[in-house]
Amino acid sequence: MSAWPEELLPHMDTLIEVGEDLWTAGLVATHGGNLSVRWRQGALVTETGAMLGRLSHDHFVAVDSRGRPMNHGPSDRPSSDTAIHLATYARVAEAGAVVHAHPPYAVALSLDWDAITPPNLEGQLFLRRVPVIDVKWETSAEPIAEALATQPLVVTRAHGVYARGATPWDALKLVSILEESATILTLAGRG
Ligand SMILES: [Zn+2]
Questions:
Q1: Residue 188 CA, ligand 1 centroid: distance in Å
Q2: 1, 45, 92, 161 — which has fewest CB within 10 A?
Q3: Helix, strand, coil: what percent of the chain each, to 5?
Q4: How far is the CA of 168 from the centre of ligand 1 (A)?
Q5: Tens-level pLDDT at each residue, the chain (191 residues)
Q6: How far is the CA of 83 from the centre of ligand 1 (A)?
Q7: In a domain, 1, yes or no
Q8: pTM: predicted TM-score of the whole model, two decimal places
């Protein structure tokens, strides 16, 4: 049995629901993406290779500020993107959660575009110009965190999106709005 601190259980339950929504909405492949919430000096992150649509309490890892597992749950293998999550928390005080997903229309537009701007008023209420940045995965933590310091969402070209929010629901909302915008733009022939 895992020995999770009681305070982490509601966070895990929220991330489980957000993961289900990401999967159901087609914003991520079966084994893609990762999620976290800020916790103490570090974070609670999904396990590497976890299926976001089928998360349980066994699929999370609590890590310290340097990404070292704190041995609360059964897994000691945090997401390979953990450094990105931690860099975001270190740089952005208001970030309480980070969501990484692979929304197909947004990623498709990122192949040729340097930014995605929602075409509809509702999208523009929450997102302005969402930048597309070029990063090498090995050195991507700081550039992504830097981009997330000035806006809540960034697209990494030909890969996916990273969103931060006060809660996982806030970050999910932004990913969903961006993908809706990218879908509309594509259907309208702007892609
Ligand atoms: Zn990814």
A1: 27
A2: 1
A3: 40, 20, 35
A4: 17
A5: 458 999 999 999 999 999 999 999 999 999 999 999 999 999 999 999 999 999 999 999 999 999 999 989 999 999 999 999 999 999 999 999 999 999 999 999 999 999 999 998 888 888 889 999 999 988 999 999 999 999 999 999 999 999 999 999 999 999 999 999 999 999 999 87
A6: 13
A7: no
A8: 0.96
